[in-house]
Amino acid sequence: MVFDAGADHPVSLVGLSGRGMAVAGPHAGGWTAQRDPRPIVEVLASGTGSNDNRLTLVTTVAGSKLRFAGARATGPASVDDGAPVGGTEPYRLEITQFAPYDQLRPAGRPLDSADPAAARRLAEAADPAVSGSGSGSANATSNGRAGNDYAVNAHDCGDCADTPAPADGLTDGLTVVSVFEAFPGLSAVRAYTVLRSPKPLPVEAVSSLSLTLPLDANGATVDSSRLYWGDNAWAVENDWHCAPLRDTAVRERNQRINPGESSSRFALSSASTWSTGSHQPAGIVEALADGSADAASTAGRASGSPVFSVMWQIEHNGAWEWEVGENDPGLHVTAFGPEYQDHQWFTSLGKGNDFTSVPVLFAVAAGDWQHAVGEMTLQRRALRRAKAAELGRLPQFERSQGLVVYNDYMNTLFGDPRLDKELPLIEGAAKAGADVFCIDAGWYDSTDGGWWDMVGEWEPSTNRFGKAGLAGVARVIREHGMGLGLWLEPEVIGVKSPLAASLPDDAFFTRHGVRVCDSGRYLLDFRSPAAREHVSRTVDRLVDEFGVEFFKFDYNTIPGTGTDHDAESVGGGLLDHCRAYLDWLDDVRRRHPDVMIENCGSGAMRADCAQLSRLDLQSTSDQCDPLIYAAIAAGAGLTILPEQQGNWGYAQQEMDDETAVLTLASGVLGRLYLSGFINRMNDTRLALVRDAIALHRRVLVEQERLVPWWPAGLPDFTGDWLTAGLRPVDGADASADASADVAYVTVWRRDGLPYVDLNVPAGRTVKQIFPAPSAFGHAPQARPWSVERVDEQTVRLIVSDDSRPSARIFAVR
């Protein structure tokens, strides 16, 4: 990262490079600084607003008044060459900027922003080649910096290690600290912003990340860039899309005739606490070499090929927003937690009321979008390991990585557990080889189905499990060599629960003087000591009394915009609750380090990085149709670690062989989450399940050094064919371990042509491993597929039966 720290403008990012890219910086030969770089932070203060009311979040007055005050760089105490990639301690860079109060006063916006004709005159003065005809090549921007020729006041942060924190002496204005953290060996960064002001200063938005993309240095343009984004909804999660940026809302408007910052932007946001309920808090820009010969030469790649990709992901379990917009020229990615316009959030800075924004991750690498996803995968792993180390549970974290869980819910009991139903399932799960048996919703229900609006006490049912009760069922599970798991929805109290009357009002979300109710439930406010004490006591009791080793934490109702009780703003109350909930999770993990915890938010409605950096498993959906689930599983790797993808494998005896193989295949390369009436299976079908588990355990051992891979491109959610796999990390050394060079791919055919082509370079072989041809008798109707080499880059897979959907798993060596 190369920053321009000139005295007459805010600090901006003028250079960025990642794995496989040419090093950025003034000392790099032939390096090109990015024109029109955005400030590295935006601060929307209520009293000053923005310089452009079309771009209220990315042209803020307060952000434009900030000036460089100092920087500090620190590193890990030590870097262990033998530690996993990323280690557990990051490098950290803090850039401090300051704006005095007399600069933070209402004023008219700059001339070039208010008047396009004036902006054109300024641009023409800077570069006579700019004209109103729309032809020619502009090398100037509307702020007067002459493109690649302007002087970059690059600050070398390597000299900052022993510099005192400059913020200590800045007292008469707004101090902003931009923090960047990077784990050793990774091409990814975690960024957030800290605001301080000794006097009251209302702020309505602050960016956690404001990233200017290095298009000029890599021979790319806005026109040659592509955008990737993901949509989510209940039972149709992980629906990812790709489009040329100009085919999205970032339209070409001819900036030679209409100079200045474009108000065209592609923006997504999410409200409340289903952080992934509508869209993914993540996206990717893939920059391709421009069609011109000069641009292709600059990039060192063929015209039209990807030169670099950047991925970002907001690390927050609440409200957020991100946008991709056009500079003059160039592209920026700006990401926020909650803000006022969409989330009713603000904070009034002042003595003792500093503010820290939510973290945002970004990864950058040479090549296409899959390389950026690979880098982000390594970053997520490093964050998980660092969090486990922080909580003092690294050994338990590593042990839980290899456990297989059976859950009685999906396409099985659907929340109606009873002794006569559970005992056969327990025996079947043990025969299959599960390590944990989880009793899902309903274990606390003594009203025969009326539990939805009565939840909250979490006492075992008095009429579902016979005389021995839940304790007796737990004992049977342990006698079969498995650990007990229980479903729990800790953040809600049913309106008919006795606890609704006994807990104080301040234990719940309230607005306008009344409790917030959603679908017959009140929502606990984790800022409240009473709320936290209740859920902590519940978890402790279930662990102590029943020996629970696994919790499935669900979250089926949400509190809306937030709470106005004891909060500066409704959105501020929600943000503080979200952070308090994460603190509570950390406390639970410290007190019960051996207990595994699954994150389930009505499927994957809260599958964000803040939750997943702390928890072991993510339910990827509540989808009951294995054909649709294949699309969900295929896209999960863009935002969820393979070892956390709880993809349901709900094989049934009555399924034909191809369908049983298909549903099991969806989980093997992620985290196979078993369900189904496993007790009804004959020996042949049970053997197929055991084969899937055996392969899954083998993959689990290798996952730490594998990253997601899509050899047929981005999964099309409604497409006939889907592929998703795991490949070794770029540059992995396979000399000491033959398995380090093995990749895996799951291929689903739902309809259409009887074959699919995969990008597999020459010298690599493709072999079917599930169902294994050597175990043909375990699924005799699912005959092996054919594999043909088409050319040096392409392998063709041909199904054995094109009359029905099917799936296979292959090893690539």
From TrEMBL:
Question: Where are the annotated segments for Disordered?
Answer: 119-143
Please name the InterPro entries in this protein's record: Glyco_hydro_36
Know the name of this protein? Alpha-galactosidase
Q: Which organism is it from?
A: Bifidobacterium miconis
